[in-house]
Amino acid sequence: MRDNLARETRILQPNRLIAPLMIAFLIGGCTTTDPYTRETKTSNTAKGAGIGAVAGGIIGALVNKKDRGKGALVGAALGGAAGGGIGYYMDQQEAELRRALEGTGVSVTRQGEHITLNMPGNITFDTNRTEVKQAFYPVLDSVGIVLEKFNRSNIEVAGHTDSTGSREYNQQLSEKRASSVARYLESQRVDPRRIFTQGYGETSPVADNTTVSGRSINRRVEIQILAPRA
User: Fold this and answer.
1) Kind of pairing, strands 220-226 and 195-199?
2) CA distance 69 to 67
3) What is the residue extent of each domain of the chain?
4) Pick from 49, 88, 92, 223: CA 20 to 30 A from residue 154's CA?
5) What sequence ranges are listed for the domain OmpA-like (predicted)?
């Protein structure tokens, strides 16, 4: 009996080491240099692959009770592929958006697997108007091209205002502006089933509403691009 136990231990130990080594390889081999800060960092693709591999390995080991080592390996491989695939998809989408929007006044920020496009109100709409400025059409055209290409992501278009005027007016203004941007994207062949609109009025300021510059920053439309489900 001891001989059998020792033999099983020798078989499982190498398998237990492979999954962590796979994860280390994925993460270590997928570092990138941030084009703005010049810092070396782990890409979101590698992070996704590592998280997916860990989760998949745990599930695989639990499911395959007869051979937990083999189950962990299979689960880690599948989980890593799924996580890495989403990370890579969002990495590519972010890169194309940054290229398309460079110099337009629209900022592109990334938090986890969400991408946010911040469109300042002064370049998107005239004062107290809800129609997108014609001068801004080419910018939204560029956004539409990328969103149509990466058609697995869901999109939330959110309108925001400053605190000038009544809450009711600001709420309606934010809703109508979000709707205008969404309808324009739909005219550029972005599937309307992917798009959700939300008006936040003056409830979500990102700057001080008591200053002119702060109010200008708060008047904005944000497009949130959400990672597809694995």
Assistant:
1) unpaired
2) 5
3) 2-97, 103-226
4) 49
5) 111-229
d(C-alpha 54, C-alpha 46), whole Å: 12
Assigned CATH topology for domain 103-226: 60s Ribosomal Protein L30; Chain: A; (3.30.1330)
CA torsion sign for 39, 41, 45, 47 is negative
CA angle 69, 75, 79 (to 5 degrees): 145
Tens digits of per-residue pLDDT, 221-230? 999 999 997 6
pLDDT number for residue 152: 96
pLDDT band at 37 (very low <50, low <70, confident <90, very high): very low
Cα of 25 vs its chain's centroid, Å: 24
Whether pLDDT at 114 is above 70: yes
Q: Is 102 helix (H, G, I), strand (E, B) or coil?
A: coil
Q: How many angstroms separate the CA atoms of 203 and 201, rounded?
A: 6
